[in-house]
Write a structure and sequence with these properties.
Shape: globular
Largest sheet: 2 strands, antiparallel
Radius of gyration: 21 Å
Number of strands: 2
Strand order of the largest sheet: 1-2
Distance between the termini: 35 Å
Helix content: over 70%
């Protein structure tokens, strides 16, 4: 038996072991290097698992050699491998970025705490993605959530504590709904293994406890993914958390929550029953459109760039859920590809905003006047990412919206094509607000902006900006993977 057979377990164990080590070996440098090594190892493992899944198909790993459904199973299929690469890849870039960032935003005595909580958050997100056990999803969800509350609270002012408390309250409500839903499924099937629950539900499909479980899980997961109007925790959390935390959460946390929703809908419940015979399809469509328009409209009036792009995230989640509401392989392809594309785009934006905060002392519209002259590369990067949010050809955002348009056209919903294009115009408006302030206003003379962006912040940010363009031109990984995932999920429906 080689180490390759234990890669699914190591995917979670490595960052989990790194967390207590950063506490035991606390100091100025060791916690950083420990968590950095854990994140890079996690990325290598994710890429190896991706390669194995493509070569040999789904991987099933029994914890403690107890076979499923009796024991806990780690299950890696195309969708799981896709998410593992996204989460570990973002973490591997955010950690080098974080060192200089938290020097400016977090007191020195709390640096080791940041790396401990970051490792735990990474453990939780990877665990959610890889486990094939419903209760384990809840456990890993709580690990990632509890560490996230601390990470947000490490922000530079007291508003971070309020944001953390708001997220704690709403996150706890969401987790309670999720565990109630899982409990109802266990009551009806006597199993916690996702695949086994899916097989057993065929005999009790449509009963009241099953429908109640579906409702509880949908609402609880929607809170975690910040679906409009359950998004109230997100703007403050992204705006007041340290920049490295905002970058990591914006790129991964809500995307993993969407993954959980997809996993339950397609691996546990019969998606055709969920989206066709129940009013879920119409409800998701309405909430997605409401998020796309309402959040984009609110973003236009924000005076702080972090809050502006936080509301933009709520709108982009609307696009993700819109693809799911089509109940078609093309729609699901749009959802999965936008998980990756939006993660890369928003991770880059919040990294760049962290550099702006470091140099300009904040990210308000008043402070960034003339930013295009003072920080030309950073400003240009934000513009490129803004074009991706709009959906301009040559960026990853265009690929996502193209597949959404294809899904709408396939179903003869021309009015949705119009609404998707109209909502993109709102993105033009809030991106233009940044362009106007950065390029068409004179730099403020009362702000000293002599500080240079450290290379450890600039390089990871630049790599993600390049990824926004590269994956907009070469879609073999993103679209190719998403098409396979959509075909497998719809092919596996009962």
């Amino acid at each position: 038996m080689t180490i390759a057979t234990h890669l699914p377990a190591l995917q979670v164990v490595i960052p989990l072991v790194a967390a207590p080590l950063t506490v035991l070996l606390r100091g100025r440098h060791l916690p950083y290097f420990i968590s950095l090594a854990a994140s890079w190892i996690a990325l290598v493992i994710a890429l190896l698992l991706w390669q194995q899944v493509n070569a040999h198909g789904t991987i099933s790993y029994a914890i403690g050699k107890w076979p499923a459904p009796w024991g806990i199973e780690y299950r890696v299929d195309q969708l799981t491998a896709f998410m593992l690469v996204l989460v570990s890849g973002i973490a591997a870039l955010v950690l080098p970025y974080s060192r200089a960032s938290i020097e400016n935003e977090v007191p020195p005595q709390q640096h080791y705490l940041f790396y401990t909580m970051f490792s735990l958050c990474l453990t939780g997100l990877l665990g959610i993605s890889i486990t094939g056990d419903a209760f384990n999803i809840f456990v890993f969800l709580e690990i990632s959530s509890l560490s996230t509350y601390v990470l947000i609270a490490l922000g530079r002012n007291r508003r971070a504590l309020i944001a953390s408390y708001q997220y704690l309250i709403m996150g706890t409500i969401g987790a309670t709904f999720i565990v109630i839903g899982i409990g109802l499924l266990y009551l009806m099937t006597g199993s916690l293994n996702l695949a086994d629950i899916g097989r057993r539900l065929a005999q009790v499909q449509g009963t009241r406890p099953v429908l109640a479980a579906l409702a509880f899980l949908t609402v609880g997961i929607s809170l975690k993914l910040a679906l409009f109007p359950l998004h109230q925790w997100l703007p403050d959390a992204y705006a007041h958390a340290p920049s490295a935390v905002s970058s990591f959460l914006a790129a991964t946390a809500t995307k993993v929550a969407v993954y959980v929703l997809i996993r339950f809908y397609f691996s546990v419940f019969d998606a055709s029953q969920v989206l066709s015979q129940l009013p879920m399809q119409e409800m998701m469509l309405i909430l997605a459109l409401a998020g796309m328009f309402a959040a984009s409209a609110i973003a236009i009036y924000q005076t702080d760039l972090k809050r502006l792009f936080a509301y933009s995230s709520v709108a982009q989640i609307g696009y993700i859920i819109l693809g799911l509401s089509f109940n078609s392989p093309t729609g699901l392809t749009a959802t999965v590809v936008h998980l990756f594309n939006h993660g890369v785009t928003k991770g880059a934006i919040f990294m760049l905003l962290g550099a702006v905060t470091l140099v300009m002392g904040g990210s308000t519209m008043a402070r960034i006047q003339g930013l295009g002259h003072r920080m030309p590369l950073v400003s240009f990067g934000i513009v490129l990412c803004g074009l991706s949010l709009i959906g301009v050809p040559g960026t990853v955002g265009f690929i996502s919206k193209w597949y959404l348009l294809l899904a709408a056209i396939e179903q003869g919903q021309g009015w949705l094509v119009f609404l998707i294009l109209l909502s993109s115009l709102l993105a033009v408006v809030y991106v233009w607000r940044f362009v106007e302030a950065a390029y068409f206003r004179e730099p403020r003379k009362d702000i000293d902006a002599d500080t240079r962006v450290p290379w450890s912040m600039g390089l990871p940010s630049g790599l993600l900006v390049i990824a926004c363009i590269y994956f907009g031109l070469d879609t073999s990984f993103t679209v190719g993977s998403s098409v396979k995932i959509a075909e497998l999920l719809f092919g596996g429906m009962r």
